[in-house]
Amino acid sequence: MSEDKHEHDGRSPYTLQQDDDETRHAFWADTVADQVEAHVADQHPDEDDPEIVIKGGISPSGVPHLGNVNEILRGYFVAAVLRDRGHEIRQVFTADDRDPLRKLPRTLCDLDGNLVDLGDVDAGALGRNLGHPYTDIPDPFGCCDSYGDHFSTIIQDSADAVDVPIDMVSTTDLYTDGAFDDVTRHALANRDRAWEVLAEYQDKVDEDYIPFNPICEECGKVTETVTGVDLDPEEGDLPTVDYRCTDMDAGDQTINGCGHEGTATIREGKMPWRFEWPGQWGVLGVDFEPFGKDHAEGSWPSGDDVARNVLDIEPPVPMVYEWFTLDGEPFSSSEGNVILVSDVLELLEPEVLRYFFAKDPSRARDFSIERLDQLVDEFDRFEATYFGEVEEATEDEQAFADRVYPLVVEEAREERIRLPYTFAAVLGMTDDPDLREEIARREGHIPADAPEWAVEQALARVERARNWARRTENEFDYELKRTEIPAHEFDADTDDALAELADFIEAGHGPEEIQGEIYETAKRNDIDTGEFFGAGYRLFFDEEQGPKLGPFLAKVDQEFVVARLRRER
Fold first, then answer.
1. Where in or outside the cell is it found (predicted)?
2. Residue 196 and residue 11: Cα distance in Å, rounded?
3. What is the SS3 assignment for 61?
4. In this structure, what DSSP letter does residue 409 have?
């Protein structure tokens, strides 16, 4: 390495974790927006109101799951705040689809959101194309122009489902359309500087390093061996590189090159990702980009360094967000621990999902399908706080709701009705829509003068809660026999015990109190505890077993529970 080793004091990407004298906001996106405005003013001092570009990105590997929506929705909230402030915003999302396929995924996803194994599709389309760019690989489902296009379509559909307007940008298109010409030429012209900078972040970089990976004209694979560079072609021609198609390391396997020696233009290949990422900032004019903490310690410092000291590009405002887990475990396509946006929206409303992502990105969180009712309850309180319906709301809660609620809903309407999620799950135990509405009205959840749209919105939650019960196989995943009493024969002691339990519930008691009373009632009447629980399951489900009975009965409308225990209906 040369003696004039460069100095680099890059910007920390922990934008939200920095404790300084900046203006305090109730919403983290306002804090980021302040920094974006300052960045834009510094970069465009002579422009009155330049377009602000917010970016996210992904490589088309694995299954595009809920975790991948992090960058879309984190970027959306900053975009929404800046739009509120009067700025013109473009939110782009790049698919790094000129990357080579390095290994076969275990699981894929069709355009309808169904996870499928390789055996259910044309796996050969992938297996025959290891080392090829994603956009040069046939779609194994046969529905899109390429494997890369298939993946990008799912990302676009996910953004549409949560009403985030993004412009999907194919990195392949940036190369083939010539958008990357100048930055690629610049990187090659400064290749000595490139290896000096990159050598600080990667051990296997020496003075022979060339920041460009051609696509072999013979076998179609991306190769990393460049043997020559020509930056002074004849007029009208593009710069070229000479290459030899050599083997590529792909984790624990090797993708064999074909040995062909040829020449490729700068549109017939790609820059390595540590140059391509900062190159995108320059080509797209990016002002802000959020990314996961896995990029914070390696990719961001090198990207910032390459941008400033090789490509002469000013990096955007960064923001590290914490990954969230799924039911306590990391997202993993190979382990089957994934959920798609389309699946989530069958369980809860889009505004609840947007609310989850509106929470502080610097804190790790768990998205629990098992306890989804808690997230929905939290959203309902957040919504009620906005409308001034929560008397004990703290000052911080009120400020957050006032600022954020209009950004997560399509329209703030005070007449909205939100059925408690577990109550909606109880209603989902019957198929009769009229009965569902009747019970909801009788229990006071739907006012007599409620507008029709609000009633429809409220009852739509029932189907979502029912889907949740079935997915998790929880205590609401049973058919509650509401319309008629199941056939039964109880002795006199059981009859008396059921009547006592009815009186206890009618007097008003909580879930665990009811559970304890079931035991005590059986004991007082000298009834086997298991048989007494079985009597309850027979009356309500026509089954010999079921959910934890006390908490369940506490969640069902009291009038019905008491009447059924007394065998009145």
1. Cytoplasm
2. 20
3. coil
4. S
- Asked whether the whole model's pTM tops 0.85, one would answer yes
Give yes or no for a contact between 152 and 95, defined as CB atoms under 8 angstroms apart. yes
Using alpha carbons, select from 129, 62, 59 the residue that is nearest to residue 97: 59
244: which strand partners?
A: 261
CATH code that applies to domain 492-566: 1.10.10.350
| CA separation for the pair 136, 413 (Å, rounded) | 48
**Residue 353, C-beta contacts closer than 8 angstroms, at least 6 positions apart:** 162, 341, 344, 345
Res. 19 pLDDT band, cuts 50 70 90: low
Q: How far apart are the first and last CA of the chain?
A: 87
Nearest to 314 by CA among 287, 275, 276, 277: 287
Whole-number pLDDT of residue 2: 42
> What are the domain boundaries of the chain?
212-270, 413-477, 492-566
The answer to whether 356 touches 367, Cβ cutoff 8 Å, is yes
Question: Tell me: the pLDDT tens digits for 135-159?
Answer: 999 999 999 999 999 999 999 999 9
Residue (of 376, 443, 358, 450) closest to 413 by Cα position: 450
The residue count for the chain: 569
